[in-house]
Specification:
It contains 12 helices and 14 strands. By secondary structure, it is of the alpha+beta class. About 19% of the residues have low confidence.
Length: 352
């Protein structure tokens, strides 16, 4: 895989950003532009050719269109499509081949932008895109420091996610259960062995996971405490990162449905308490808390991209009780859903 790198001695030069939405029948025009363009697909599939390379970019993926390279749609789309696009210029950018994190610059002031990759946490990127769109609508179309720095933050988020993803892919056996307690600013995982213990958010072995994980049900309802056997340190070390990554990916895809800790555990053939402890040892949060995080991330996206009533959004992200949703949202974000929506109200769309 190729990545574009750029050391930051200041912000990137932001040019423009937008959110493209189209139904069937659209095809990307053929063109060459004098800036870099990042495209982040949220829904559907984007068929595109970049230079001589043809690809079908799916939801959750980003691609980087290099300056001066022709790109064009390869076919007319047959389903709905939604993506963000960002035009910017990088100082002294260079392209390198990177098969693993060992090939990447280790300076945390260096951007790492993949030519194409699936990012681990697309909702975080979507929120930043929405905020930048709002700021651009207010303070554009001329270049300004606010947009420059916010665009730089967006690119740094992608860079950190890319570096972390490649680091864990390089040596997954190094990141066994109980090993990862955080992520550095440059995207490299922090191991428990480096600090002599677990992270400050991790519960001791055998401890309850907190209010969210004490109940089997997520969201509304009383539920009951999960049962099952406690994992031993030996069994924890035998299970690597990959199984918990699979659990997290499934939670991400299904968080807004009516799922519970017990349902996730049954899906992957664990007892609920065993899964919760294992999951927390890897990611620093319990299963129920992870479901809540993904629900609130999705709610942020809907609040900033749609005019749907808050009660409808609550239902869409898995909460039957809008008042309970509002309490959870404020506890997580510090804002009510209405305050969050009012903070970034302006959107820029382009469509056919």
């Amino acid at each position: 895989m190729s990545v574009t790198t750029c050391r930051l001695d200041g912000p990137v030069e932001f040019l423009s950003i937008g959110q493209f939405v189209s139904g069937p029948g659209w095809r990307h025009t053929r063109r060459i532009i004098d800036s870099s363009e990042l495209m982040f697909v949220r829904r559907g599939t984007l068929p595109i050719r970049v230079g001589e390379r043809e690809m079908r970019v799916g939801a959750g993926e980003v691609i980087l269109l290099p300056r001066g390279v022709e790109h064009a749609g390869t076919e007319i789309i047959t389903d709905d499509l939604e993506f963000y696009w960002l035009h910017f210029r990088l100082p002294d950018a260079r392209v390198i081949a990177a098969s693993s994190a060992a090939d990447l610059p280790q300076d945390d002031r260096t951007l790492i932008l993949p030519d194409r990759d699936r990012i681990p946490d697309p909702d975080r990127v979507a929120v930043l895109c929405g905020q930048l769109i709002d700021v651009y609508a207010r303070f554009g179309p001329h270049r300004n420091a606010y947009c420059d720095y916010l665009a730089t933050s967006l690119l740094l988020e992608i860079s950190v996610q890319e570096r972390a993803s490649m680091t864990m892919a390089l040596n997954p056996s190094a990141y066994m259960i109980g090993g990862i307690i955080g992520i550095r600013a440059d995207g490299r995982p922090i191991l428990a062995a480096e600090s002599g213990g677990v992270g400050h958010d991790a519960a001791p072995d055998g401890a309850a996971d907190g209010p969210d994980d004490a109940n089997d049900a997520v969201g509304c309802g009383s539920g009951s405490r999960s049962g099952g056997d406690e994992p031993s340190d030996t069994s924890a070390r035998r299970i690597g990162l990959a199984p918990m990554l699979a659990v997290r990916a499934w939670i991400m895809a299904n968080a807004c449905d009516d799922i519970t800790v017990a349902a996730v555990a049954a899906r992957f053939h664990y007892s609920p308490s065993y899964l919760t402890v294992m999951y927390k040892r890897v990611f620093g949060v319990g299963v129920a808390e992870q479901i809540t995080e993904y629900r609130i991330d999705r709610a942020r996206d809907l609040l900033s991209t749609t005019a749907s009533p808050i009660a409808n959004i609550a239902h869409d992200v898995g909460y039957d009780d809008p008042k309970y949703f509002m309490r959870v949202f404020k506890r997580r974000t510090g804002l009510t859903p209405g305050q969050y929506r009012d903070a970034f109200p302006k959107r820029l769309y382009n469509s056919v």
